UniProtKB/TrEMBL annotation, chain A:
GO cellular component: cytosol
Superkingdom as given in the UniProt entry: Bacteria
UniProt-recorded name of the protein: Acetone carboxylase subunit alpha
Domain Hydantoinase B/oxoprolinase: 59-621
Molecular function, one GO term: 5-oxoprolinase (ATP-hydrolyzing) activity
InterPro entries: Hydantoinase_B, Oxoprolinase-like
Pfam families, per the entry: Hydantoinase_B (PF02538)
GO biological process: glutathione metabolic process
Length: 756, 134
């Protein structure tokens, strides 16, 4: 048979044109476009942009217009935050932005989640490429497009965007968009971020970008379809309206600019803002030392089972080029939800630079545009279309932390800094996701804003702040729990109380996390889930001799109604996890601990679920910490006196906490000598420590040591090449447990007379 | 005068001798083109000693302590003054990272054009207050 793949003359240009048209005309499904999804750089200057820049190059005019547009975005952000129905909207997990006609994010609101916004250029570019000239769709004045499927450019499917084209005298001049963490989306578990999802089909609504607004009106038939697909139909309606009206307000501000300054001024402003930021980023990078920095962060679970999942990072700077090389990170999980699309990771790295490194730069897509990101295909950081990614935050955030840890080592020697050198912030969403039927008979599914209460990392001159802000939204809020409790049938019996001894020590310590205890009260159909890693291995690293945080489990007390206890025997209630779990004050109750990947768990009235937010990392040698600061931490309940004395080598009177400074200096000098005595030279140490493969007792995923081409897949004998994808299935944890129990039965000699 | 560039809280590179040095005690640690950790001492720390159990390990599987079979803390200190220069939360048996691989000629060229006046002034000196005022 003739080989059809080789030989013969290459097709002519005319043939290629014909082939391209044939393929376009017969495309059966417009899936995510790799050309769009893999690229985060700015689009080429269009003819319109060239023309506009030639007409309006004046930097003062551009600065004036940029400020007006920024104010317009901020106004839209405020509208969504004030009017949005989703808990996430109320607490700042929203953003608005203005995009160029080609789809690049030029200006984002000053508040909110930049990560959300910096991935929306993908769906806009999809619309431009596929719907603009599609006769059955088209893009016209008054249209609005909705989108949530992360595979077309989103963090996760719980976020929904409303996207409006802005026309001027019949010409498309830009786009505006508003994005909200909505929560509920009809997935296999309530709340929009199912950790039980084993395929994309378990993840609820899958909105590729489509037109849902015409003549500035939401189309009722499509709205009803969307409402019918989720657990919170009223939320779906309300927030679609809120996002639409926020976009319309930004449109109004743009039109005012168009009226006063004309379309060229607008287009020139959007383009030059991005180009200037891009150029400035390259200039700033060139000031860093030429170097490669290596780090890795471990995810200790898939949220279904504990395992060791490596996020591997080498950050290389040469000249004005900065490259994140994440090759060697864990392979994607075929049936676990912790994978992310590459755009999500890039969006979060963009957040790193614009919130933690160069917060003075205009927020948009351009800061990340010149920075290169390399991954393996079908990696946990660059997953395939067929892999679930509803818990992508696990990989996005640990990827962020790897970047944050690495960047600090470049910044230290750099004469020109725009922030203090910063140890990694805590990075897990330690909060309760909830759902069920409320005390008002409403079906709900969403989460507590405590995910925003991550502890900050220490900096080069001060301690990290407690519960400061989440890494994804530096101006967000942790909300008013009492307001939330008007709508939901549970109480946070303990809230925002620091978890003692869950510390990240250092010369400057990390900001600490706080305790949350919840119990259902007024519903027989209500449950909770938790979706975080870090119950066995800390999810961050310390900086310059400082320590990371510890680990954070889930504790449960079942077989008790604490509301009865508080009514009848209030003296038995305790206000810390430490006391409740250690003293076990409720007779007959069952006290258990778990990792933080609790699937949706139907709760009974008065049963306790208890977790803690986490601490940011410490900075520097803890023996250099000011003893006064150590005692202050004791007084503020961050640390017990015993732990403080043992770790920090501060000598104080246990009754008065008065410091003996001379004795402290001596104790610290002794500890430095003790360190030297108990440590061994590096060359000697690695002889005993280094192993050629991951240990057999750990289900390890990712590369080992310097060999980034070989990825381990759960055992020392199961591997794939980094560039050759393979399925990576996990066994259902209940099947694992059943197999363990059956093996024990067999070992105990229980007759195996069951028919097979 | 030779220029010494502070690279971390406790490490600097002497551009003339091309060595990593301890900023606390001036100990010469290792060649600047190589891995500074090779000139340090290492201790394999049980993470439970740093992150103490908040709840009783005799009763519970998860206690707020990292699992010592799953992660260790490698503590790197200066062999002369004992300052803890770096920590690395490591999977047991995983080779320690060469975390800062510096292009020394490029660093020298960069600082030749900057001059010593541009050196960052942040340093490790800590002068604890002796009062207990709050």
């Amino acid at each position: 048979m003739k080989d059809m793949t080789t030989g013969g003359p290459a097709p002519s240009a005319e043939d290629m044109k014909l082939i391209k048209k044939f393929l376009e005309d017969t495309t059966l499904f417009l899936g995510p476009d790799p050309e769009i999804m893999q690229n985060h750089d700015l689009m080429q200057r269009s003819a319109d942009e060239e023309h506009a820049i030639a007409n309006v190059p004046d930097t003062h005019t551009i600065a004036k217009i940029r400020d007006r547009l920024q104010a317009g975005c901020d106004e839209g952000y405020e509208m969504v935050e004030q009017m949005g129905a989703a808990p996430g909207a109320k607490w700042g997990d929203v953003i608005t932005g203005i995009y160029s006609a080609s789809g690049d994010l030029a200006i984002a609101s000053a508040g909110g989640v930049l990560l959300f916004s910096s991935v929306v250029h993908h769906p806009i570019k999809f619309i431009v490429k596929n719907w603009m000239n599609e006769p059955t769709v088209g893009v016209r004045d008054g249209d609005g497009f909705i989108h949530n499927d992360s595979r077309y450019g989103n963090v996760h499917n719980t976020d929904q965007s409303m996207i409006l084209p802005i026309f001027h005298e019949g010409r498309l001049v830009c786009w505006v968009a508003s994005t909200v963490h909505e929560g509920e989306n009809g997935a296999i578990e309530p709340g929009g971020m199912p950790s039980m999802a084993e395929s994309p089909s378990d993840e609820g609504l899958k909105m590729s970008p489509f037109k849902v607004v015409e003549n500035y009106q939401i189309k009722r038939d499509l709205l009803t379809f969307l409402q019918n697909s989720v657990r919170e139909p009223k939320l779906q309606l309300e927030d679609m309206k809120v996002k639409l009206f926020a976009c319309l307000r930004i449109k109004q501000r743009i039109e005012e600019t168009l009226k006063t300054d004309g379309a060229d001024a607008l287009i020139s402003t959007l383009r030059l803002t991005m180009e200037d930021v891009r150029a400035e980023v390259k200039r700033r990078v060139s000031e860093w030392p030429d170097m490669s920095v290596r780090t890795y962060i471990i995810q200790d679970s898939t949220l279904r089972e504990n395992c060791v999942v490596k996020v591997n990072c080498t950050l290389t700077k040469k000249g004005d080029q900065l490259t994140f090389d994440f090759r060697g990170s864990s392979p994607e999980f075929t049936n676990r939800a912790t994978n992310t699309i590459l755009g999500g990771l890039k969006g979060m790295l963009s957040q790193l630079f614009l919130c933690y490194i160069w917060p003075d730069l205009p927020r948009g897509q351009a800061a990340m545009a010149p920075i290169e990101v390399i991954t393996d295909p079908h990696s946990i950081l660059n997953c395939s279309y067929d892999a679930p990614n509803s818990q992508s935050l696990m990989s996005i955030f640990t990827g962020f932390t790897a970047g944050q840890h690495a960047v600090a080592k470049f910044l230290y020697s750099c004469p020109e800094k725009f922030t203090k050198v910063h140890a990694p912030a805590f990075n897990m969403i330690n909060t309760f996701i909830w759902g069920g039927v409320s005390q008002h008979g409403e079906t709900l599914g969403n989460l507590c804003a405590d995910l925003n209460g991550m502890g900050a990392g220490a900096t080069s001159n001060r301690d990290g702040e407690h519960a400061l802000a989440p890494i994804f939204a530096t101006m967000a809020d942790i909300g008013e729990q009492e307001v939330n409790e008007e709508d939901v049938p549970f109480l946070q019996l303990v809230s925002k109380k620091m978890t003692r001894d869950a510390i990240a020590p250092g010369k400057y310590r990390g900001g600490q996390g706080y305790t949350m205890m919840v119990a259902t009260k007024d519903s027989e159909q209500w449950g909770f889930m938790t979706t975080a890693q870090g119950a066995k291995i800390p999810p961050i690293q310390g900086l310059f001799g400082g320590y990371a945080c510890g680990t954070y489990p889930l504790s449960k007390v079942q077989g008790v109604d604490v509301y009865d206890v508080m009514l009848n025997e209030p003296e038995k209630f305790r206000h810390s996890i430490e006391e409740i779990m250690n003293e076990q004050p409720f007779e007959g109750a069952r006290y258990t601990t778990h990792h933080m990947g609790m699937g949706f768990d139907i709760s009974k009235r008065g049963e306790l679920y208890m977790i803690s937010q986490g601490a940011g990392a410490g900075y520097g040698d803890l023996l250099e910490r000011d003893p006064v600061g150590v005692v202050k931490d004791i007084e503020e309940g961050l640390m017990s006196a015993e732990v403080a004395a043992r770790l920090y080598k501060v000598v104080f009177d246990p009754a008065t906490l008065a410091i003996d400074f001379d004795a402290t200096e001596q104790a610290r000098a002794d500890e430095r000598k003790a360190r030297i005595a108990r440590s061994v030279p590096y060359a000697e140490f690695v002889k005993g420590w280094n192993q050629p493969k991951p240990p057999a007792h750990l289900p390890y995923f990712g590369c080992w040591g310097d060999d980034i081409e070989t990825l381990y897949m759960g055992s020392p004998d199961k591997t794939r090449r980094g560039d050759e994808p393979k399925p990576n299935y996990m066994v259902h944890p209940k099947d694992v447990r059943i197999a363990e129990l059956e093996a024990r039965l067999a070992a105990a000699g229980v007759p195996g007379d069951e028919k097979q | 005068m030779t220029m010494k560039v502070p690279m971390t809280e406790y490490l600097r590179i002497d551009l003339e001798t091309e060595k990593w040095e301890c900023r606390v005690c001036d100990h010469v640690i290792a060649p600047a083109a190589g891995n500074y950790k090779e000139g340090l001492l290492v201790h394999n720390r049980d993470p439970r000693e740093i992150h103490p159990p908040v709840i009783d390990p005799a009763k519970y599987r998860y206690t707020f302590c990292p699992d010592p079979d799953w992660v260790r803390i490698l503590e790197f200190c200066c062999p002369k003054c004992g300052t803890q220069i770096e920590t690395e939360y490591a999977t047991p048996g995983h080779p320690p990272l060469w975390d800062m691989q510096v292009d020394v000629p490029a660093l020298k060229a960069q600082w030749a054009s900057r001059g010593p006046a541009m050196l960052p002034d942040a340093g490790p000196a800590v002068v604890p207050g002796r009062g207990h005022a709050h």
